[in-house]
Amino acid sequence: MDYKAVTNCRVCKSRNLTPYLSLGNLPLANLLLNNIKERVERYPLDVLFCNDCALSQLSIVVNPHILYDHYPYYSSVSETFRKHCEGLAKTMKSMARIPERPEWLFPEINWEEKWFPTVLDIASNDNCLLKECQKLGMGVLGCEPATNFDMEKVLMDKLSSHSMSADDLIPNFNKFFSYETACEIASSTIRPMWNHSFITAQNVLAHVDDLHDFLKGVHFLLDDNGVFIAEFPHAKNLIENNEFDTIYHEHLSYFLLKPLIFLFVECGLKIFKVEKLPIHGGSLRIYASKRVDEVDKSVEEVLNEEEELGLYDLITYKNFARHVEDVKIHLKELLKSLRYQGAKVMAYGASAKGSTLMNYCGLDFIDIHSIVDETPSKIGKFTAVSKIPIVNKNHFYLEQPDYILLTAWNFKDEMIEKTKEIGAKYIVPIPRVEII
Ligand code: DWN
Ligand code: ZN
Predict the structure, then answer these.
(1) Which of 23, 39, 357, 370 could form a disulfide with 45 if both were Cys (CB 3.0 to 4.6 A apart)?
(2) 113 C-alpha vs ligand 1 centroid, how far in Å?
(3) How confident is the model at residue 138 (pLDDT cuts 50, 70, 90)?
(4) Is 280's C-beta closer than 6 angstroms to any atom of ligand 1?
(5) Does ligand 1 lie within 6 Å of residue 410's CB atom?
(6) In the 8-state DSSP scheme, what is residue 190?
(7) Which of 58, 161, 238, 411 to mutate to test the pocket of ligand 1 (most atoms within 8 A of CB)?
(8) Mind listing the pLDDT tens digit for each residue in 61-82?
(9) Nearest atom (ligand 1) to Cα of 233
(10) What is the pLDDT of residues 319-350, one digit of tens each?
(11) Over the stretch 375-407, which tens digit does the pLDDT of each residue have?
(12) Which H or E run includes 401?
């Protein structure tokens, strides 16, 4: 079976789930075709609201091996994201406290300068974060189930111009993270988890079906002074900014802080601080530990904000669902009128969210000439169903488009900066269709 239906809330196990948005039967967002005749499976893309804990979640779970055994998305392609990771690495370094043992072990050493923790990054992708941690001297270990990253590492390093010597190689557990994987990591000699270590999980919680098992693994590996740091798109931004294109089969959950606090407590972890980040259309970064003396006021502030915005009420989600269709109507109208004018429209970013946008709106190669993407593994392929060719950045200069649709609008500034000399106008689809 390719997928299973969700009957109980992933966080609180309630069966009181109400569907509020259906985007139709869509292909998997990161499925790219080698040729346009390939057969493409479609899966229902419907979102449910848990009336008990306010978690939004998809109505189905696609077999993760289909989604992730080969994963074409490389985090390092975006300089904005690399800088974001650099910031997180520096934050961890500044939080690292020397454990007691080294001080008495070698009293002549200045441990404040010399002590660096080990960072285990879950779903480490192309090591974007771990490379930044490594630059600061930290011990690093990745856990990434996709098999393609090792093979393409050299190519990616050239691309991101952050060269890697053999000494810098980052050990990776080629597995989905779970309690079982955590036990293997703990028993392995590959890189021991040290006292005061960090476990990071950027943009992975939303992809996990069994969150209890995942956090059991985190709890098992984390020592009493360790910190778990997770980042995920905040469902507040999904609703407020009409970011419906971030809904696709990989994203099983759309998190508010409230259900996560409940979940973490159940798993023996306490969230002690929350930060709002602009990355990926607006994300939260949460800090959690086993032992917490003081909870930062940011936790209460975010909870209050969620409540004031009505994010714990079903009606808010039903209203959101009504706005989603506006984008479809306006984008289709705009592209149709541009076609009648003879304008050439290309897109920038063969992103997963671009797949939802184009397939939900029913766009194809007649509306969009081609999509530029700088990820080597995406170039030369075609988007599923919409059948739009993915080409390298030189094609902007060859084709001289009149308009560029920003299918990765979350990296708008970086993309405009990189293409401004082309002189095209930009179509920004989210939160509403706009030309700039
Ligand atoms: O959770 C997920 C989110 C965080 O990232 C994953 N499921 C997959 C991914 O979603 P996405 O594909 O919608 O993300 P991005 O990062 O918005 O995709 C941007 C695309 O554009 C990538 O294919 C890289 C490409 N790109 C580029 O070619 N040049 C991006 C930038 C910034 C550029 O300058
Ligand atoms: Zn629930």
Answers:
(1) 23
(2) 36
(3) confident
(4) yes
(5) yes
(6) S
(7) 411
(8) 999 999 999 999 999 999 999 9
(9) 4
(10) 999 999 999 999 999 999 999 999 999 999 99
(11) 999 999 999 999 999 999 999 999 999 999 999
(12) none
Distance separating the N- and C-terminal Cα atoms of the chain:
45
**Residue bearing the CA closest to ligand 1, atom 21:** 349
Look up residue 101 and give its two tokens: 């043992």
Tokens at residue 167, please? 């000494």
Give Cα separations from 85 to 80, 92, 277, 300, 394 (angstroms). Answer: 9, 11, 12, 26, 28
The residues near 72 (Cβ < 8 Å, ≥ 6 apart) are 30, 32, 148, 375, 377, 378, 381
Query: Per-residue pLDDT for 251 more than 50?
Result: yes
**8 A C-beta contact, residue 71 and residue 30:** yes
Of 254, 236, 263, 331, nearest to 46 (Cα)? 254
- The edge-to-edge listing of strands for the beta sheet with 434-435 is 390-391, 371-372, 345-348, 403-406, 425-428, 434-435
Which has the closest alpha carbon to 252: 203, 306, 217, 303?
A: 203
What does the block give as tokens for 405?
């649709």
Ligand 1 mutation pick, 73, 161, 430, max ligand atoms within 8 A of CB: 73
Tokens of residue 368, six digits: 């969009």
Mean pLDDT of the chain: 92
User: 156: pLDDT confidence band, cut at 50, 70 and 90?
Assistant: very low
